[in-house]
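Q: what does this look like with adenosine-5'-triphosphate bound?
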Amino acid sequence: MAKVRLENIVKRFGNVVAVNNINLEIRDKEFVVLLGPSGCGKTTTLRIIAGLEYPDEGRVYIDDRDVTDLEPKDRDIAMVFQNYALYPHMTVFDNIAFPLMIKRKKLGLTKEDIRKKVYEIAKLLKIEDLLKRKPGQLSGGQQQRVALARALIRRPKVWLMDEPLSNLDALLRLEMRAELKRLQKRLGITTVYVTHDQAEALSMADRIAVMNKGRIVQVGTPEEIYLKPKHVFVGTFIGSPPMNIVKCVVMVENNKYYLDCPGFRREIPKTLTKIVRENMKIILGIRPEFVEVSKKPLPDSIKAKILVVEPQGSEAILNLDINPEGEETLIKVKTRVTERFSSGEIIYLKPDWTRIAIFDYETGKALE
Ligand code: ATP
C-alpha cells in the first residue's frame, strides 16, 4: 500500500515560482499524470516527491508519513527519466541487478536470489535475450525497457517517471504507452508520470492533474478533463485539435437571454441564466468532434465557409470561418470522410449544445 500526498508545496528558484501551492493526493495503486506546457512546474513537483528538491513550503507524505526531510534513498521510490542513464560499461544484467547489489547485505539477498529477480523482471519486460549485451548495443526502445526493469526490480512503493517515452519514435511510443500502463496495473505500483503530451496523458492516466504556471488547474479522470474542463486553459490544452474558442456577449431581449456570437445567435440554456448578466462577455468552448457538418442548411445551424481541408485518413479536419459575412472567426471541426469537402465551399454546422463548455471571459473559469 502506498499513497502520496502533497500539502501546500511551494518551490522558488530565485524570482521564479516554479511550484505555487500545490495540493494533490495520489491514491494507492493509482496512475496519476502531471500534464502541462513546458515550464509549468511538472518536473520540479516530481523531484520534490523524489526528494531531489527540497520545497520552500509545504510537506510531502508517503503513506501518511512525513518524508519531506528524508533522503531519496530512504523514500522507497524509483525514478525513470527521459535519458535512461544506464551504466555503459555494465551488461544489461548488471544494470538491472545494480539497485539490489548495492543493498544486497542489507536486504539479506544471495547472488542467486538476485539472479532470479533479474530474470523475472527481464521476462516481464521481454528483454531476457538482451541480458549479456551492453547498453551501447541496444536500440532506444530496448534501453528504455532496461531502465524500466532497473527501476522496478526493487518493487518500489512509488514509481516516478519523467517523460520516459519522449526519446522513442512515434510508433514505439504508442506501443510502450499501452505496455507501461499494463505493467503498472499488473505490479500495482502507485505511479506519478510527467508529460506535456496530452494524448499520452489521456491514454494512460487514471487521473490527470493539469498544471499551468506552477499551479494545478484541474484534477480529474481523462473523461472529466476532456468533457468537463473547469478552465478555458484545460479545454484548449487538451484535444487534437484542441477545443475551439468563440467569444460571445450575453444579450437580454423580452426577458430572454441570448448569446450574441460572431455569425450566429443562440438562446442561453435555462440553467445558466442565473449566472450570466446582460453584456457579460463569455467564451464558448466547442470541441471539433462535437459538431455535425452538413452541405444543406439545417434548422438552427451555423453557416460557415471552408478555408482549408486537412485529410486525416478516415477523418478530415475542416478549417472554417463561421462569420463569412463579418470579421473572420476561425474554428476547426473534425468530420468523418463520407462526403467530399473543398475549400471555398459554404457548409452548415450543428454543434452538440449539450457538450459545449461556457467560460467566464474575465476569469477563464467554466460557468456551471
Ligand atoms: P518541461 O516540460 O520543459 O520539463 P516543467 O513543467 O517540467 O517543464 P520545471 O522543469 O518544473 O517545468 O520548471 C518550472 C520552472 O522553474 C521553469 O520556469 C524553470 O525554468 C524553473 N526551474 C526549474 N529548475 C530550476 C533550477 N534548478 N534553477 C532555476 N530555475 C529552475
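DSSP finds nine helices and 20 strands in the chain. Residues 170-187 form the longest helix (18 residues).
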